Amino acid sequence: MESFSLILAIVVVTALAFDFTNGFHDTANAMATTISTGALKPKIAVAMSAVLNLVGAFLSVEVANTISKGLVDETGIRPEVIFAALVGAILWNLLTWLVGLPSSSSHALMGGLVGATVASAGFGAVHGDVLVTKVLLPAVAAPLVAGIASMLATRFSYGIGGKAEGEATRKGYRAGQIASAGLVSLAHGTNDAQKTMGIITLALIAGGSIAPGSNPPTWVILSAGLAIALGTYIGGWRIIRTMGKGLTDLEPRQGFAAQTSAATAILASSHLGFSLSTTHVVSGSVMGAGLGRKGGVVRWSTATRMLVAWLLTLPAAALVGAGAESVTDLGDWGTAVVAVFLIASSAAIWKISRREVVDHTNVVAETTEPAGVVTTAIAAVTPPPAGTVAESLTATIPAPAAEPAPATPPAATV
Question: Which N-terminal stretch is annotated as signal sequence (predicted)?
Answer without folding.
Answer: none
